Amino acid sequence: MSTAHTLTVEDGAFFHHASDILSGLLGLGALVALVMVLRNALGPMHAERLQSEQRLHLFMDGVSDYALCFLEPDGKVSCWSTGAERLTGWTSSDIVGQHVEVLHVPDVVARGMPASHRERAARERRLQSEGWRLRKDGSRFWAETLLTALYAECGTLQGFAEVTRDITERKRTERMQALLAEAGRVLQPQAGAKELAAALTRLCVPEIADACVLYLPDGSGDVRPGAVACADAATQARLWEPLMRRPSPEEPGPARVVHTGRAERFAEVDADRLPSSVSGSTCAELWRALGVRSALSVPLVVDDRVLGALCLLSTRPHRHYGAVDQAFLEELSARAALALDNARLMAATQNALELIGVAAHDLGTPLSSLQLRLRRMRLQCAPAHGEDSRLREGLLLAEDETKRLGQLVHNLLDLSRLSGGRLVLQSQSMDLAELAHEVATRHEDQAAAAGCALTVHAHTGSTGRWDRQRLDRVLTNLLSNALKFGRGQPVEVRVDVDEGTHRVRMSVRDHGVGIPPDAQQRLFTRFERVTTDSRAPGFGLGLYIVRQLVEAHGGTIRVHSRPGEGSEFTVELPFTPEAQKEVQNMIRA
Cα torsion for 330, 331, 337, 340, to the nearest 10°? Predict the structure, then answer.
C-alpha cells in the first residue's frame, strides 16, 4: 500500500515540472511569434526610414550648386551638405553644432539680422533674402537664401531648412549694366572735358572701387592725374603726395598703360610683399599709402589714340578684380574715351564758331558802310545811255553782292551765337505788317533785276513783342530765297492774324522751280542746300538760321511746295500777353 502511494507523489511532481516547462515553452513560442510579427510589421517601416535617410543624404550630397543645411530652432547647424561645403569651405565636422552666425559678416551679426530672419521665417513659414556671406577663408560672396521653418504635426517648431546660392556674378553683372546705363546719362560731351573726368571717377566710387584715378597725358609726354575720387576723405588726403610723382612709362602703372595701350590687372596685392616689378615704382607708394588689395588700370582708346588711363583701386579684402571686371571697365573706358574726344571736338568747334562770330561782327560795320557808299554812288549816276548806264549797272551789281555778303555775315554771327547758346532776344513792341513792307522795299531793286512782281498783303493790327532785328533776318532770308529761285515769277508776302489761336502768320510764296518732297525735310538743317541750280550761291545756312530764330520766339516754320509750282514758307508766331494788351489799348485809343 505504501509503495503505491510513493509512486503517486513522484508522478505528481513530474507532471508539475512538465507543466512548468510546457508553460515556459508556450511563452517563449508566443514571444518568438510576437517578435516575428513585430519584425514583419516594423521591418518595412525601418527599411523605409533607412531608405528615406539615404535618399536625403544622396539628395544633399548630389546638389552641388546650392548649399543645403538644417538648423535647430536656436540656429545651430545640425546637418550640412556637400554643396554647402563646396560653396563655403566649411566641412560638416567644422560647422555642425555651431551657430549659423559664423557664416554671416560681422556687421550683420552685430545688428542681430540672422536671429531676426529666423524669427520672421518662424512667423511667415519662409523667408527669402540676399546679403553677404563668409567663407572659411574669410572671403565674401553675395548669397540668395531661402529659409523655411519646419513644424511637427502638433505645431512645434523643429528647426529650419536653409537653401543658399552664390549670386555674386549675377549681382556684379546687374551692377555693371546699371553703371553703364548711368554712364550714358552722365558722360555727355556738352559738359566739357574737366567735368567729364570728374563724373567718370565719381561713377566708379564706391560702387566698384574704393579709389579711382583718371590719368591724362600732358604736353611733355608725362601722365598726370586729371581727376580723383575716393570713398574716404581722409584716405583721399593721403593720395596726393604719391600722385604728384611722375611715373615712368617703363614701370607698371598708368604711364605704361597710356604708352602701350594695354590694360594691367593685379588681382591680389599684399602691401607687405609687393611683386618685384612693382615694389620700386611710384604706384607702389600709392598702394602702400592706401593699403591696396587689388588694382586694375585700362586705357581710354578712341580711333587707335590713347587719351588716358583709368585706374581702380580696392582696399577691401573681399574685392578682387578679375577678368569680368576688366571687360566691364574696358567697355566703360571706351564710352568715356568717346565722350572725352567728342568734348574736345565740341570745344574746338566752339572756339572756331567764336572766332567766326568775332570776324563776322568786325566785318559787319565796313560792309554796311561800303553798301551805303555804293548805293549813294548809284543814285548819283544819271539814268543815261553809254558809259553812265554801264557804270550804274555795275554799281547795282556790286551793291547786290555787298547785300549778299552782308546777309552771310549776319548769318555767321547768328550761327556763332546759336551754337554757343548766347542768343538773347531783344523783344520790343513792333508791327509785323510794317516790317513786311520795310523788307519788301529794301528788295525792290533785287526783285526788279530778277523780273519778279513783288507784292505785300499785310493784315493790320499784327502788333506784338518780338525781336525786330531777328524777325527782319527771318523775312530777309525767306524773301531772298524766293527772289533767287522764283525768277520771272510773282512773289507774295503775307501777314495774317488768327484771333482764335492768338497767333500771327507770316508767309512768303514764289512760283518758281519748287522743292522735291524728299528734300523738304532736309531744308532746315545746317549746311543743307536743296536746289536744282548748281550755280545758285549759298552755304546752306539761311533756312537753318531762320528755323532757329523762329523757334527762339516760340514759333514754328513749315514749307509747302511742289516741283514746278513754287514754294510757300509759313512762319507762325504767338502773341505775348503784353502784345495783346498793347493791341487792346491801341484799339481803345
Answer: -130
